[in-house]
Fold these 2 entries.
Entry 1:
Amino acid sequence: MADQKSALVISAHAADFVWRCGGAIALHQEKGYDVTIVCLSYGERGESAKLWKQDGASLEGVKAARRKEAEAAAKALDAHDIRFLDAGDYPLELDRDQKFALVDIIRAVQPDFMLSHSQYDPYNTDHSYATSVAMECRMIAQAWGHNPGEKVLGAPQLYLFEPHQTEQMGWKPDVFLDITSVWDKKRAAIECMQGQVHLWNYYTNLAENRANHFRRNSGGQSGGRNAEYAEGFQSIYPRTVDVL
Amino acid sequence: MADQKSALVISAHAADFVWRCGGAIALHQEKGYDVTIVCLSYGERGESAKLWKQDGASLEGVKAARRKEAEAAAKALDAHDIRFLDAGDYPLELDRDQKFALVDIIRAVQPDFMLSHSQYDPYNTDHSYATSVAMECRMIAQAWGHNPGEKVLGAPQLYLFEPHQTEQMGWKPDVFLDITSVWDKKRAAIECMQGQVHLWNYYTNLAENRANHFRRNSGGQSGGRNAEYAEGFQSIYPRTVDVL
Amino acid sequence: MADQKSALVISAHAADFVWRCGGAIALHQEKGYDVTIVCLSYGERGESAKLWKQDGASLEGVKAARRKEAEAAAKALDAHDIRFLDAGDYPLELDRDQKFALVDIIRAVQPDFMLSHSQYDPYNTDHSYATSVAMECRMIAQAWGHNPGEKVLGAPQLYLFEPHQTEQMGWKPDVFLDITSVWDKKRAAIECMQGQVHLWNYYTNLAENRANHFRRNSGGQSGGRNAEYAEGFQSIYPRTVDVL
Amino acid sequence: MADQKSALVISAHAADFVWRCGGAIALHQEKGYDVTIVCLSYGERGESAKLWKQDGASLEGVKAARRKEAEAAAKALDAHDIRFLDAGDYPLELDRDQKFALVDIIRAVQPDFMLSHSQYDPYNTDHSYATSVAMECRMIAQAWGHNPGEKVLGAPQLYLFEPHQTEQMGWKPDVFLDITSVWDKKRAAIECMQGQVHLWNYYTNLAENRANHFRRNSGGQSGGRNAEYAEGFQSIYPRTVDVL
Amino acid sequence: MADQKSALVISAHAADFVWRCGGAIALHQEKGYDVTIVCLSYGERGESAKLWKQDGASLEGVKAARRKEAEAAAKALDAHDIRFLDAGDYPLELDRDQKFALVDIIRAVQPDFMLSHSQYDPYNTDHSYATSVAMECRMIAQAWGHNPGEKVLGAPQLYLFEPHQTEQMGWKPDVFLDITSVWDKKRAAIECMQGQVHLWNYYTNLAENRANHFRRNSGGQSGGRNAEYAEGFQSIYPRTVDVL
Amino acid sequence: MADQKSALVISAHAADFVWRCGGAIALHQEKGYDVTIVCLSYGERGESAKLWKQDGASLEGVKAARRKEAEAAAKALDAHDIRFLDAGDYPLELDRDQKFALVDIIRAVQPDFMLSHSQYDPYNTDHSYATSVAMECRMIAQAWGHNPGEKVLGAPQLYLFEPHQTEQMGWKPDVFLDITSVWDKKRAAIECMQGQVHLWNYYTNLAENRANHFRRNSGGQSGGRNAEYAEGFQSIYPRTVDVL
């Protein structure tokens, strides 16, 4: 059990994890990782335009619909553990208790790596807020004096998944992951997002183009591996290795 | 033979490779890599103060002494292939033919990764020049139209080894390498540098402190690995991976 | 009425809008825009030294004096809509209700563009706070689930007006506006600031020098337009155009 | 005739202008601009892998083939003025006379704006070199003492077109151009590049995704314009305007 | 008394001031400055692993132990004024009253310069939070309307002392201070930190290596001063001088 | 004689030193420094528009006129040592011999500090080139193997003086120098520049505004020194100090 690998995704809104790291989730599940997805909010106010345009829309109704979509998407990715903190969106704000609830999850999961948003997003301050919370809670989870007796956290990598307009967010990928083998699952998860059909093609294009970057960086015209779909990530912390 | 791993170090002056990546060289030799070291110059004019203070010092004499030291250091690191382009220092400048000679070496080595200096160095423009040459020659080595028929280069990583004042050079390590097992070899190579005794302790301190960073980033107080000596490197290109 | 152009200025303290974008306000009013100015605070504690040095100074008295000055300045700029959120200064802090009040204004104005402070200011954290609030409230104003039924906001540009020490604030102008035709109005507004006479000359010098930059960038010695006074702004978001 | 608008593209290799600003070229031709394309090299050594893999490939043969492709692509974009400086590639290097030849072209064209590569490219130093030459020659073209009597250059904008891996090149677009109306021409130009079929889909995906960014920045869900294909550019110099 | 020089250290946790600026404290005390040290928290939860591993550890017990250590360290540095705001750690958060208490101290001390943490720290958000509070309270202390009648603050420099992994924190020193004459005091203060013995050697190595940087920047091989121990600092504000 | 203080200005074109550091030159002369000014070119091609518009203008005539102006300006600043390398401008390029001539001057002067341009200038590549040459020659002057037997250079600071559009050049001042006492000399030197009358007022405005920044950073409203004219500089290297 000590060898069970795990990962933790911290998603500001219910759908973010699908577009931005659905491939990583499915791939690591396939490799035997337990991937836990935490949605800090449902994106109910700010990312549910289509639902709000329907007659009789209500906050609770929108939340329920978004939750259902997110659960279906997680299932499509073979992820069995998805949680909703319901902290509200636009703006997203966690109080101390909500942060400690997130710390509890981090400690329970003991992730080998974490995934969250870019550190800057002038279009969506919820995204950068989620990442600052991820860093803060990672730190708290490492404190021996926080709930003494619990197993403290080690030093997992925090990967920032791809934001919508990378250059405006100052996001720079330093690792590309080949998700060809699980692309069908990611596409199925994407298609669970009925309210954002206009993004299906966008993220398919993106995955194809990131595969081009994967090929270039794995050998270029002189033999790069033939990835067809890929995702990019930016690391916050240095790696520690035994070979370069 | 296709599986023989290799690496290429591009060092502006004859001693740079010792302080900055001696551990990486010895470690990868130990792991079966063939590491080739290219010294673009001997550092004969600018990094040989002690020799110039001796009576009767001459350019050729200084070069010879520096070469001897560098060869001894390479040997201490178990590196059997060290080359000297003798392109001159302070300033270092390669003409087209010298660049093409470097391209020839790159193609012959077909390195799995390359090592060179930081991209900026306001104290020593030879260092940043060496890196710009490394990038340019990496590009030329990838060109199908350069010496058609030769095996072109793939897409090896270019790691920047640690400069003397990291913050002034804008250098940020994203990978720490545990060199504990080969520390004795690196120290022996360092001690070949008789003209720079004042730096022996400096780089020993540094290796110890980088090991602290290694431990922090591999798990911190909750179980980081007990490295005693480490080196840091900055990657230029993204990695391509199958698992995060 | 759908074609009525409008703009929104978000000013941390009562006088900021005068020095930093008084020309832009007067010019756009002249061009038929409705410009709304929101002063988040009066700058009553931190930017009213002269008033506090007077006998019998009180918080309410200082606020009233600052409001009067700001209203006079707005009038000098032909701006008819100036509002005061009275959120306090040094430090400036808006709670959720005050942010939502700002969102109400944004939605009511439906600005073609917004103006606020630089994103960083080590001398005055109120300034950068105002900009972070501007971004956050812009995002909330775009949310279909915030006060459903209201007209949501589009995607107006956010221009950062010139801070007092541009280089220390990391502010870089990408657009210069010719304010020659309204300079007299800006100077009149500046002269409403009786408590800060020492800045009158400063901002006149600045407007003259920015006009030099305007001329250089509009054609230089080969025919740049003869602007005499200008203001600079930094854009947060990319533009969308039909011609370069 | 004084009113004839014009633009100048400076392309390191023969095909760069197609992928990176083919839409801008076709669109401005359509709007009555005279667009001049300067290919500093044919990309004969470094960007013609497919041609070099053919039996009997020679440098002159590859150049001729590349020139033919580039001319066909220019024609597909309705650009009637394409020039080849044949300065060599991998590495690209212009001597003083070649730079002055480029200055002659700049002065003859008197462009309203110029287009070139990103300022940094760790994969391809020819690209960043081309931009540094563009800046240097723009400066020379402004000098009254260079070929006295000739009409000197004003202060045209220099737009950097999109590089292949934007984040690695530190490229950040600040303007998106709607190229929907000329997409068919750009696609036709792309299809002239028979040696790089693997990039056709890549750049089609990209144009679709950049249109998403165009829509977001022109109004988002609240009415952004329905662009289907777009290109992004980064400006080097500030704009000078009469309205924000 | 008006000529009494003073300095203020703002330390997130009880031990930070020892490692990071113990030399500066002892040196300035020796030069006749009154140095006040403010510990915003004891670091009781997050930086006291060794204490928490002991049987019967309690929050109050850990705080008391940490306070005792910090007081002993201050004494070793000849600093007579150390204060504890007890604002809690992991996460550190000051409410408005606590910030105003810090402002009271700043005004009472009227420091010639202030010292605090780096502006960014992805490992420890308490550190960067402390610096943002330092800047905010410096600003409040300058406000004539804050506790009118009190002496307002001038414009003291804010120096950022060295964080644990400088490159990851984006910290760049622009001044090196020779602490050779007080090294014994700093080492004695370091040895008060019984819970962090693993850091003693680390910070001794660091002080030795920073002395190398001191020597290089004070004259290099051509006569740099023979400092044996040094500390580095990054300035936030420009200096004002009468000679370069 | 060993105590004679000295400084070295490296100016790309003949007039640059006047606008950008005329105050520093005059002030340090007044303080007993020997200030040497090196003009790498006359700015004959690119910065002499007015002269070229005159009938019968010739390269030699323009150079002579520019030299005369520069010499007069130096005299107005009480600088007795001005040299002209005549390396040509637009573009400025120094070959190895010209660089070594500059090294000779650096060694002869043994400056306590050096002054040159910003490191980046998209309008004028001669400026950034001059700074890269200054750095390279500073390095060569430190080499014991360059002209062995000569006194090698120590580690003088390199200050970057203020460029024309600071924000576009990425220039950030970290030191402001009070030049009030020598302002009349700087203004007199400025008035020697008969060809650039349009800049007289610009640089007077600038000096006044930089004095405002001086006052702010030396104490602000609570007692900053009453400088009336100032210049700003950016340091390349860290300082080494005995007191913060």
Entry 2:
Amino acid sequence: MLNISALEKLVHELSRLPGIGPKTAQRLAYHILRSKDGYVERLSDSLVRIRAEVHTCVKCFNYTDTHECKFCRDIHRTDDSLCVVEEPSDIMKVESSGAFRGRYHVLHGVISPLDGINAQDLKIKELIARIDAGLRSEGPKIKEVILALDADLEGDTTILYLAKLLQGKEVRLSRLAHGVPIGSDIEFIDDRTLGQALENRVEL
Amino acid sequence: MLNISALEKLVHELSRLPGIGPKTAQRLAYHILRSKDGYVERLSDSLVRIRAEVHTCVKCFNYTDTHECKFCRDIHRTDDSLCVVEEPSDIMKVESSGAFRGRYHVLHGVISPLDGINAQDLKIKELIARIDAGLRSEGPKIKEVILALDADLEGDTTILYLAKLLQGKEVRLSRLAHGVPIGSDIEFIDDRTLGQALENRVEL
């Protein structure tokens, strides 16, 4: 056999997944080999299906297997509040907080010049179009845009860029609050976070 | 959509892999969704291939995509020493130690009555047949059998069972040495291991 074996190929492909090193990939491959009851077929089938059926929502760019995703179709959600996230997986995080009942908009990335990702690579003009359509009463009116982006350099850059773009438009713009994570020890909080937590202290 | 979505199905299948919880499965699924350059197709293809092409070696029961595995075909390995392991993945561990150049035999499990695994479920009669064939000069003569099984209850039980089966046969039987792992701190070694390390101390 001159070409790479099926087992080596599977180990190679698995090791390209995030957080999966060569050793874990090998363990997973051996587990898959040992598996019974058609597991390999089901896993392979679900991979094929995900490519064939899953695409982005025409409105918010979340992943979906329908024309509009379930959050855009949900009639119990309010149209006037829009939460902007970086990736579709972030929607799950916001949802599990239970603190938001509006609509979403997925940017599919943040501005990161070092990685060659600029504003035009993201779903930013689609975001502006959604807001503008509401302002012209051609679509649901959006009163508030919440930027739920990561609290890092790229997230901050994107927030600044969006704030500039939305300047002068009749829409409230907000970002996530910085502060002490619940259950954490003050001793281990970094200075900037603690500074923000002090500044934004809540009266009792 | 009444049936489960493709994304949920992939998360479900991934979360059945060892060491992959629901959160990691979701992260992997989203990564797979975002992946480009035909990664999904390659991963799916390698799964199909592994099922179609990989089977157990006719001699040692290692996984292989040829009739005999590469260790059984390797003419530079000696036939007189046989290393018995629990799983095919254990062969990789022994190989990377560089301390063994003989042949292998994979039991595909260890005796574990609590899990309902008995001697007849393992490749034990095939092991005896290999040894007997050598003794009758119908196959390569095996002079030593090294039992490289886990140092736990099931491993020990299997070693005792094999020792009894091989009693009276003209073959040296050995097991892995117990002792202090290289680079480890004496303070953190359990009493039984330290006891064995003392008993089997090496003269300098």
